[in-house]
């Protein structure tokens, strides 16, 4: 199977880097020339990667075309291209529905959407798919795991939840700043906190259905320090602020559906 990528950014590099580490049946990767530094780095990493000067070449020679351009550029990039009727396409373009893609290219497509995260490069990512596609599962499951959304609203909810990455590092940043205020060097603070949060993430990932609420309780001795921090966080509007932020992002994602047409 040959994968073609229109758009060569961070996520494209993460997907290809991850697949090169697996036993996938992808025999070749066709990547667009833009971004030149990333495409050159990928071509240097494997002779299975070929840089194509024209996007139409990628469309014509790929078994699956992955659309990885920015939403604001997508229509201008894709409209001039000629896709075959029923061509297999994976869209990573946020908020743009398959029906919109078909309007832009002027032909029906066999399209599914995906939300891969940067950690797929290390085979530790989770990728949401809609609709669930067997080829999509074949590609993304080895990069960590793949989760099929049952409908578009569920897919948009996954997209919204994935926007927590910056908040995750923001919590670490805030805790690091607090440790530094206590006299600890920034590098030492980071070396301490990163493994603490890694251990918690591994616990959650291996919890076999145990709810996050239960895990929080199990990690919070009654009357102890962990219980106090979360209670203070919630009492000062932390949980409400998080829900409010997710509501706002979710509304933005849904509004983007109509804006992309």
UniProtKB/TrEMBL annotation:
<feature type="domain" description="Pyrroline-5-carboxylate reductase dimerisation">
    <location>
        <begin position="158"/>
        <end position="252"/>
    </location>
</feature>
<dbReference type="InterPro" id="IPR036291">
    <property type="entry name" value="NAD(P)-bd_dom_sf"/>
</dbReference>
<feature type="binding site">
    <location>
        <begin position="68"/>
        <end position="71"/>
    </location>
    <ligand>
        <name>NADP(+)</name>
    </ligand>
</feature>
<dbReference type="InterPro" id="IPR008927">
    <property type="entry name" value="6-PGluconate_DH-like_C_sf"/>
</dbReference>
<keyword id="KW-0521">NADP</keyword>
<dbReference type="GO" id="GO:0055129">
    <property type="term" value="P:L-proline biosynthetic process"/>
</dbReference>
<dbReference type="Pfam" id="PF03807">
    <property type="entry name" value="F420_oxidored"/>
</dbReference>
<feature type="binding site">
    <location>
        <position position="55"/>
    </location>
    <ligand>
        <name>NADPH</name>
    </ligand>
</feature>
<protein>
    <submittedName>
        <fullName>Pyrroline-5-carboxylate reductase</fullName>
    </submittedName>
</protein>
<dbReference type="GO" id="GO:0004735">
    <property type="term" value="F:pyrroline-5-carboxylate reductase activity"/>
</dbReference>
<comment type="similarity">
    <text>Belongs to the pyrroline-5-carboxylate reductase family.</text>
</comment>
<dbReference type="Pfam" id="PF14748">
    <property type="entry name" value="P5CR_dimer"/>
</dbReference>
<dbReference type="InterPro" id="IPR000304">
    <property type="entry name" value="Pyrroline-COOH_reductase"/>
</dbReference>
<feature type="domain" description="Pyrroline-5-carboxylate reductase catalytic N-terminal">
    <location>
        <begin position="2"/>
        <end position="92"/>
    </location>
</feature>
<dbReference type="InterPro" id="IPR028939">
    <property type="entry name" value="P5C_Rdtase_cat_N"/>
</dbReference>
<dbReference type="InterPro" id="IPR029036">
    <property type="entry name" value="P5CR_dimer"/>
</dbReference>
